[in-house]
Design goal:
Helix content: 25-40%
Number of strands: 21
Radius of gyration: 28 Å
Shape: globular
Strand order of the largest sheet: 9-8-7-10-11-12-20-21
CATH topology of the largest domain: Rossmann fold
CATH architecture of the largest domain: 3-Layer(aba) Sandwich
CATH class of the largest domain: Alpha Beta
Structural class: alpha/beta
Largest sheet: 8 strands, mixed
CATH superfamily of the largest domain: NAD(P)-binding Rossmann-like Domain
Strand content: 15-25%
């Protein structure tokens, strides 16, 4: 027996009645199974991707769970009880729609010298107490000093391998960008929240994500309406502080530098630190460097950004417009030159050419922390802590993209603080609703349902573009 019935948009779950015949069957029923196909068209607040619906009769009930059905105009099947042959029909009632219980996975990052994990055990407890299931790969948090037992105590299930996590999870959370060679490992339709930096991805690899309909949310491009980038800011604040700590070491002889003390000493002037970029990373570095006594100069093209920096740091830090002549002038006196340039979701422009390195004093340091988006120095290339520096034209280069990972526990906490509200919204409401209702999640999404949702990136790669706000 099979019947089809349409429910109007906006119908509440408790009032949606689907009749597979005429009057109620009454109490005379037998335990036989019927498959009823119901075409449902209701608002996403009632039934949507990742939601659970309970369908019941007067004598029993069965549950069906997404993704067997989607938000609108789709079909799903329900098993139930069939009335005795002498009854005219049976009344089916869609009695309630419960919030989704999403399967969420945390994987262990295998990028060299990546010690962070996507969420702290405290955040995992928040999710599990809301009824979501969290799977954690064995040892995922060990290097940030979060052991398996702490995750299990928070209600997570620890599984053996990364594949176990990927096969079980609808939503995957990681830290470092996945390698293009691994894109095929994601399940079709899976949501992956991570650093992505897809502006640098090869077109072929990007198409793999589209073909598999993987939804990709990038920490680096999540942006609120007021222009704040909460996740990027959290990591940049830590990176800025670490840049000063690391840079002060690089100036010492044992690390290849020219033997300078960044803060100076009585009768000895401090080292000169030039920061290119007055954003979050630049401000954090400037404040910390100034606090320990370095001579700090900041360049940026945005006057308002430099005003904010001086409000934050004070007027003792000189600022300059980042024109080529000014950059060349700053390179000439810099002992430590920090590149802190960022363009949300796009490749970083080259602002320091190899020719310009000729202005620098021998054994000076370039720290290019915009390297995760390509770097703003022509001679920059990614490094890691196995060999963090190299030399070009007698200038020492340090280009480690995941610098915050060296303070893994602090960075994991900062990452969790900034990303958890978005994870909760995706898990509680489903991604179909979250991307349309939350503009920060929308801006933070690269790919969705087989399409690129960033116009400029789709034009550059020649791939389909989807405007999720249309309709």
């Amino acid at each position: 027996m099979c019947t089809r019935h349409n429910v109007k948009d906006g119908t509440s779950a408790g009032d949606a009645i689907v009749a597979a015949g005429v009057p109620d069957a009454g109490s005379d029923t037998v335990a036989a199974t019927v498959s009823v196909s119901v075409s449902v068209s209701v608002t996403a607040t009632v039934i949507g991707h990742g939601h659970r619906a309970r369908v019941s009769t007067g004598t029993g009930s069965v549950s069906v769970r997404g993704p067997e059905f989607k938000t609108k105009n789709s079909s799903f099947k329900i098993g139930g009880l069939l009335p005795t042959p002498n009854c005219d029909g049976i009344l089916w009632r869609l009695s309630q729609a419960e919030e989704a219980k999403m399967d969420i996975g945390l994987v262990k990052d295998r990028r060299p010298f990546e010690h962070r994990v996507g969420l702290t055990p405290g955040a995992v407890r928040v999710l599990t107490e809301c009824g979501h299931r969290v799977y954690v790969e064995d040892g995922a948090g060990v290097e940030a000093n979060f052991g398996n037992r702490t995750f299990e105590g928070a209600g997570a299930t620890v599984v053996y391998s990364e594949d176990d996590v990927l096969l079980r999870s609808e939503l995957v959370i990681r830290v470092s960008p996945p390698k293009p060679a691994d894109y095929h490992r994601f399940q079709e339709g899976q949501i992956v929240v991570s650093s992505w930096h897809l502006a640098l991805a090869p077109a072929e690899a990007f198409n793999t994500l589209l073909d598999r309909k993987v939804t990709t949310v990038g920490y680096e491009i999540i942006e609120e309406n007021d222009g704040r980038a909460p996740v990027l800011e959290a990591m940049s604040e830590i990176a800025g502080r670490l840049a000063v700590i690391m840079g002060s070491g690089l100036l010492l002889n044992e690390f290849g530098g020219k033997g300078l003390l960044i803060c100076g000493s009585p009768g000895i002037p401090p080292a000169s630190m030039v920061i290119l970029g007055a954003g979050t990373l630049g401000r954090a570095a400037a404040r910390y460097a100034q606090g320990i006594g370095a001579h700090v100069v900041v360049l940026d093209r945005d006057i308002d950004a430099m005003r904010r920096l001086q409000d934050h740091v004070g007027y003792d830090v000189p600022t300059m417009i980042a024109t080529r002549p000014h950059i060349e002038k700053a390179l000439a006196f810099a002992d430590l030159f920090l590149c802190a340039v960022a363009v949300h979701g796009e490749k970083t422009p080259i602002l320091v050419t190899r020719e310009m390195l000729g202005n620098m004093k021998p054994r000076s340091i370039i720290m290019d922390l915009s390297i995760d988006q390509g770097g703003c120095c022509e001679t920059s290339r990614p490094t890691d802590f196995s060999s963090p520096t190299y030399e070009v034209d007698d200038i020492i280069h340090f280009c480690v993209p995941n610098l915050p990972s060296s303070a893994s526990r602090a960075s994991t906490r900062a990452l969790t603080n900034s990303i958890l509200p978005y994870i909760e919204e995706i898990a509680d409401r489903g991604f179909d609703r979250a991307i349309k209702s939350n503009s920060a999640i929308h801006r933070g999404t690269y790919t969705y349902n087989g399409n690129c949702v960033r116009r400029r990136l789709s034009d550059e790669l020649g791939v389909p573009y989807l405007d999720v706000t249309a309709g």
